[in-house]
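Let us work through a complete example step by step.
Step 1: write down the sequence.
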Amino acid sequence: MKNIVAISTGFFLLTGTASQVSYGQEKNSSRGLEEIIVTAQKRDESLQDTPISITAFGEERLEIEGINNLNDIGSKVPSLTIEPFPINNATLRIFIRGIGIADVQVTQDPPVGIYVDGVYIARSTGTALDVAELQRIEVLRGPQGTLYGRNTTGGAINLITKRPSTEAFEFKEKLTVGNRNQFSSKTTANIPLGDTLAAKVAYLTTKRDGFIENTGPGGDFGDREVEGYRIDLRWDISDTTTLDYAYDKSEYEYINYVYQSIRPAEQNKGQAEPVREFSVTQAKHSEDRFDSMATFRPMETSETEIEGHSLILTKGFENVQVKYIAAYRELYDASYADLGGGIGSGRYRTDSHEFCGPAARAETGENCLPLVVPVIQQEQTSHELQFAGSLFNDSVEYIVGAYYFEEKAIEDNSPLHHQFSSELSDTLLPVLEPILAPIVGTVLNLTDVTIINMLSQRYEIENTAKAVFGQFTWTPSMFDERLSLTFGGRYSKDSRQALKNQTDKTYLQIGILNQALDVQTLGPLAPILAGLDFLVPGDRAFDNIFASKDFTDSSFSFIAEYDLTDDINLYGKYVQAYKSGGFNTRDPQRGSTGTPSGFTTPEGRGDDTDQPAADGIVYGFGFADGFESEHVDSIEAGVKSELMGRRLRINANLFYSEYTDMQLNFILAGTIADTKVTNAGEAKMKGFESDITFLATQNLMLMFNYAYLDAEITKALDNAGNDITDTFVFFSAPKHSYSASADWTIGAWDWGVLSANVSYNFMDERNGGPRLANAVNTFGSSYGLWNGRLSLNRVPVSHFGTLNFGLWGKNLSDEEYVITAIDNIPHSDRAVIWGETRTYGIDIIYEF
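Step 2: predict the structure and record it as C-alpha cells.
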C-alpha cells in the first residue's frame, strides 16, 4: 500500500488522517503520531529535531484544507497574514509575525522569502498562482538570515513539489465542481522511463466566478481562469548521483476586485479636496457587502504568465554531499484596476482606460488618451552550491555554500494616459469662478469644468546578490550526546540599480469652450489653485533619473539544543537577518542623481533634493538617494515534545526581536499616492506560538495552533530629527490568531473509509497601514472562518485503482470580513476588499 504523507497544520501524519492511523496497518496495534520530515535547514530531518517554529501542510492536508495557492493558507497559519495588493489581485502582501511590505514595487523587496524547491522567488507578483503538483508547504516563522539570507527578516515559505519515481507508473486525476461556476481539473502522471530515469507530468486548468457582479461593461469582478503545467525529469546517474530538471509554466487570467466604500469621504483629501464632495455623490456606500457594482469603462482582463527552469545536481561522497541548484524564471504581469465609486459614473473616474476630449488633444494632439494596462516584466537567474556532511566521527554536521542571484525587471505604465478625472465640488464655485471667468472669457458653471490628471511611468531595475554561508552543529560526547550546539554565519553583498521615468500632467477642461487649460502654465492662477490644495502635482518630470546603491551584511546565528528525554527537546537560539535596501518609485522628489551604468539610456538629471515635496516639506532626499537595509536580532526559546506514547505532540516557543534601521514607508499628507521611505525606525516584538496535535482516539485527531504577538514601533524620527514614534504602528500584526480542527474517522470498510474534518480559523483585528492617523480607517476587523470536508476514500475500482470523494465547504457561515482597506481615494474614508464568500463543491479523485 502506498503511503500518503499528510501534514496537519504544523504536523505530519505519515499515514494521513486518523482513519489511516486506525486501519491503515494492523487494526489492533497501538498507533501514535508518525515522525515528521522537513527540509527547513536544507536537509531532511525530523520536525522535532528542527529548532525552528514551523507550520507545514502535506498533500492530504492541502486537499483537506482546500489549499491550492499561497493565498489559501493566509488564515490557517497563526502569525501569518496574506493579503492581495490593492490594484493587483495576483500579487500578495505576506506578513509573518507582523513583518511584511505594504507597498509592492519592483524596486523594493519583501521581507518574507518565497522558495520553490530551494529557488528564491524575488517578486511577490504572481505568488497567488495555483501550483499544479505540490508535495508540501512549509512556513518558517521568524528571521532566517543564515541559511536563507537576505529578505527573510519575517520568515520564509518553502513550496516543495513532488519528484518523479522509477518504482511504478502512477496516475491521478482530480476533478472539482462547485458554486460560482467553479470547475477544476488536475492531472498528474509519474512515468518510469527505465531503471534510472523517470518523468512526471502535471497539468492544471481551473476557473471560478467572483462574488461581485459588474453591472457595467467588461468582466465580472473576481472572475479567474488558470492554466498551468509542469514537467519533471529525474535521472539516477549512479547510486550517489542524481540529476533533477523541472520546467513549469502558468497562465492566469483574472478580473480584479474593486474597493467598496464603507464610509463616505469626510476627512480632508489634500490634493483631491476640490473634488471630494462631488466624488462622494458618484459612489455607492454601505457597511454591508454589495452583490454588484459598476464601472464606466470596460473592466479589462488582467493576466499573469510565469515560466521557469530549474536544475538540481546532487552528488554524494563518503562524508559529504554536494548539491548544485540553478534556476531561471520569467514573469509577465499586466494588471488593470479601477478605483472609481462603483456606480459606473463617467463624471468621476479613477482608472487608466481611454479618455477623449480637449485635454487629450491639448497634451498629445490626439483626440483620445489610450488604454494603458500597467505591465511588469522580470527575469531572474540564480545559482547555489552546497556542501553538506559530517566531521570528527560524525560529531559535527555542517552545510556550507555560495549563492549568486541576478535579476532585471521593467515596470511599464506608459505612455501618458488617464489616471483621474472629476467635476469639481459646488463649494468651489464662489472661489474659482471669478478667477477663471477672465481667463476663459465667459461665466462658468462648475458642472462644465472637469479636472483631468494624466500619468506616464516606466521603471527599470538591475540587481545582483552574492553570498557565502555556513552552519555547523556540534554534538559533544558529554551529556550522553543529548546536547547540540549550532553556529551559523552568512556574508552577503547586494548591488541595486534603478531608473525612473515619470510624467504627471493636470488640466482643467472647459466643456462649453471645448478647450483645456494646463494648470502648470496658468501663471498667477497656479499658486492660487495650489493654495486651495488643488490637484497640482508640481514639476513631476522624472527624465531618466538613475539610482545605484550597494549593501553588505554579515548575519550570525547561535543555537543550543538539549534532549531532556527521548521525547522532549529544548532549544534556545539567537538569530540575525537583514532586508536589502532599495528605492521608492512613489517618491515625488528626484534626489541626487548621476550617470547610469549598465543602462542604455541618457544621463540622469541634476540634484533636486532642495525642492519641496507635495506636502510642502523639504525632506532633503529623493528617489535616487534610496534607503538603507533593515536589520533584526532575535532570540527564541522553545520546546518540541511528544507525550502519551506519541499520541500528544506539543511544540511551543517564546520569542523576542529587535529591529534597527527599520524601513518606514508613509504616504505624504494631502496626497493620494506620494510616499517616503526612510530608515528612521526601531521596533521590538515579543510573542508566543504553539502547535498541538492530539490523537484522542484511534479515530479522532484534534489540532490547535495559537500565536500571540505584541509588536511596537519604539523609535521613529523625521528628517529634522523630531520624534514621531507615536505616529507609527505595525501593519498587519494581529495580537491573537489561532486555528482549531478535528479529523474524525467515521468508519472504515473494505469498500472505503469515511471521514470528516471541521476547522475554525481566527484572525484578530490588525492595522491596515503603518500610520496611526490612518489606522481607524484602514484596520482589519477580527473574523473567524468555519470550513469543513466529508470524505469517502479508497473506494476500489476493480483492479484499476481507487476513487476518493470529498464534499467540502469554506466560510460555511458566509462571514463578511475585510482582507484589506484603504483611506486615500477621493470618495471614501474607508474602502475595502471583502474576503471570499461561502464556497462549496465536490472533489472526485481517481488514483492508479
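Step 3: interpret the result. The longest helix spans residues 429-440.
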